[in-house]
Amino acid sequence: MKMKIRSIKEKEEEFRRNEILKVALGVFSEKGYHATKMSDIAKFCGMSVGSLYNIFQNKEELYISLFEAKVQEVFHEVERAASSFKEPLESLRGMTLAYFNAGIRYGEFFRLFMNETIGFRRERRERWKERVFLTFMKHLQAVKEIVKKFSGARDDEEALILTLIYLGMVHQLIVFHIRMNKEINPEKLTEVIMRVLNKGIKKEEK
Questions:
Q1: Would you call 120 helix, strand, or coil by DSSP?
Q2: Domain 61-206 has CATH 1.10.760.10
Q3: Among 20, 28, 120, 173, whose Cα sits 20 to 30 Å from the Cα of 39?
Q4: Class of domain 1-57
């Protein structure tokens, strides 16, 4: 019975936390990170500032939690898209398309994040990277398995190198379009990436 009660409580806390993050996203988007106060977020959440501090120890903790949640959403969408295909080629194509679609859907948030964190000290930026590192490593393994099947890599080390090259291309294209306020065309960019992959890393047909 105790385990069941604790489970319900944890679900309620998770739901409350996620609702706060949704509200915080709107406040940060409107006012920016530096101008936003915890009291602003508490007000829109309909709760006291003290209650908000009981859940998030400070504004930075809340902001990085929001960033972490968005990164996880992107990774889940991409992995779900890849898993809907059986053939490595189609899995890779579906995964690439999902990345670029996510670039459209979450573009405003990541643009806000990049602009607001430009002046942050290196220690703070490194601390934020550490928070999402484990999430990224899990995602990296999932992507590597698909790239390995597609490329016919000889071993895990080669598959990892090819995966990092692939992710680097996709990431830089998304960042470039967000930075330059250019419209992302998922289908076109996916075809470009697939042409590069077919010529560069696809296993040779015997």
A1: coil
A2: no
A3: 120
A4: mainly alpha
